[in-house]
Write a structure and sequence with these properties.
single chain, 508 residues, 15 strands, 3-stranded antiparallel sheet, 29% helix, alpha+beta, 8-stranded mixed sheet
């Protein structure tokens, strides 16, 4: 990859080439209306301080329909789940961060190490890949970000004074990191751990995990002592949508759980998630892109207590609990020593509209009061210590949080870079995101506004096309996918052809 020309931080951006706006295809994409203005706190009631209103009565009907006719099976599955959760809690308390699988970037082709990594990833939903980018390069990205911010003092962030998370999407560091060949390889590697029920020959569900897409997300430069960016346990990718028939119900993602067979649910089946609408309410920061993994690349050393990531490493059991929790209510008060006993958690009667922690247009938040059996005080563990250039990833349904207080001596800095497959809806999003890149405005999923349109040092489309690889250009929607490659499965070929049409590359 070419080195970044320092002069880009000294001269205003030149004009961009015209990128023709794309018609939205027939995919189940959300509204393309601009998001309200805001920052990262806009999607977290706990950060913004806004009070959560009761959900409308229609959610009573949704809950009733989900379990109607198999209430007994749901009750039995809940009891089985609570027993397993106690075992998982004990395991997590004993093993802690050792549960999180790790693999070195240079070992991605080692079959034995890959197999061990895969098995642990499927159990926990989280992973650390070491040495994806050289430390010097990752630290260079951080310094470049700092110069970009200092050159553009109008840059917004949260909190508004001394920000920890910046409303930046198109800084040079972010573009260079997303287009880095090792990042693209890791994204492809991680997404290979998903599967389709129909196998590679399934042409009914058009998707490719071999062609990662670039998703423009924010960055974090959190300083020692910060207490503002105190994200508690939460799940991204919508909230109420997980129960709604027009949300995750479109693909029947959680059918096994709602049918009383949570043990048969697989978090790693990808075809059911293709039609999902995870942003029904067009919330600022609500994600409409199909992200298999959320992730970030570290630009500093980060350890537990120093502004680090915390996760709940039981993807299957925690997901089942979050989804079933709204159907049950305790018959004992919280101060009763038997409050958590299985026998005292019957099916809710009468049925309420509550979806504990779910608020339209926001993410799904969790806490010990609303989700007591998860034992979040014990099961939210730190990801192992990371160094600059390490990449951390977690399944899109994993419960995660960050240290409420950054008690370390230096900054805790990351570039948020998730792993996204190529689908019809994702190609639609990529076409819209490409326009915001050209304009320097926030990516479509995020709060609207002028963004970086007037920022000095913002990379031009001309520069990017000359200085990143063809694979990276394709990931950004700037070049056509190669549909002639001889090793493509039929499903992949059809997916690439479809994406090229959406991105206005015809049948290239």
């Amino acid at each position: 990859m070419a080195r970044l020309n320092r002069s880009i931080l000294r001269f205003p951006v030149i004009s961009f080439p015209q990128i023709r706006k794309q018609p939205v295809s027939t995919a189940t994409t959300p509204s393309t209306a601009s998001k309200p203005t805001g920052d990262i706190s806009s999607v977290f009631p706990s950060l913004s301080g806004s009070a959560s209103k009761p959900l409308p009565p229609r959610f009573v009907d949704i809950k009733k329909r989900l379990i109607r006719g198999h209430e007994a099976q749901i009750q039995a599955s809940w009891k089985r789940l609570l027993r397993v959760l106690q075992q998982k809690r004990d395991e997590i308390k004993t093993k802690g961060s050792d549960m999180v699988p790790e693999i070195n970037f240079w070992d991605l082709n080692d079959v034995e190490k890959r197999t061990k990594f895969r098995d642990a990833l499927h159990q926990t939903g989280v992973a650390v890949i070491r040495g994806v980018v050289q430390e010097k390069e990752a630290l260079g990205w951080k310094e470049l970000v700092k110069r970009y911010i200092s050159s553009n003092p109008t840059t917004k962030g949260f909190p508004s004074t001394n920000p920890a998370v910046y409303e930046l999407y198109w800084s040079p560091s972010q573009i260079l990191a997303r287009s880095h060949p090792n990042i693209l390889r890791v994204q492809k590697f991680l997404m290979s751990h998903w599967h389709s029920a129909g196998g590679p020959s399934d042409t009914k569900h058009l998707i490719s995990t071999s062609h990662p897409l670039s998703y423009a997300d924010r960055l974090r430069l959190r300083q020692p002592g910060d207490t503002s960016f105190a994200l508690g346990p939460h799940i991204d990718g919508g909230s109420c949508e997980r129960w709604e028939p027009s949300g995750y119900g479109l693909g029947g993602v959680y059918n096994e759980i709602f049918n009383g067979n949570w043990e048969k649910y697989t978090p790693w089946e990808m075809s059911r998630r293709i039609p999902v609408r995870s942003d029904l309410y067009n919330g600022p920061g609500g994600c409409s892109m199909y992200r298999m993994f959320q992730g970030w690349v570290a630009m500093s050393e980060i350890r537990g207590g120093h502004g680090h990531l915390k996760i709940c490493p039981m993807i299957k059991e925690a997901t089942a609990y979050v989804l079933l929790r709204p159907f049950f209510s305790p018959s004992k008060s919280q101060d009763n020593p038997r409050y958590l006993d299985i026998a005292y958690w019957p099916l809710e009667n009468p049925v309420s509209s509550s979806l504990q922690g779910a608020v339209p247009a926001n993410c799904q938040e969790l806490n010990t009061e609303l989700h007591p059996h998860l034992g979040l005080d014990d099961t939210m563990i730190h990801v192992p210590e990371v160094r600059p250039g390490d990449y951390v990833a977690w399944h899109c349904d994993v419960i995660h949080a960050v240290d409420s207080i950054h008690m370390g001596p230096t900054d805790s800095s990351v570039l948020y870079i998730p792993a996204c497959p190529l689908t019809e809806a994702n190609a639609d999003y990529l076409a819209r995101q490409r326009e915001t890149f050209a304009e320097g405005t926030p990516a479509p999923d995020f709060p609207s506004g002028e963004g970086e349109a007037q920022h000095r040092g913002r990379l031009t489309a001309e520069y990017v096309m000359k200085n990143i690889s063809t694979k990276a250009q394709r990931a950004m929607g700037l070049a056509a996918f190669d549909t002639k490659h001889r090793h493509l499965f039929d499903r992949e070929r059809e997916t690439l052809e479809m994406a090229n049409r959406i991105l206005d590359f015809g049948d290239a």
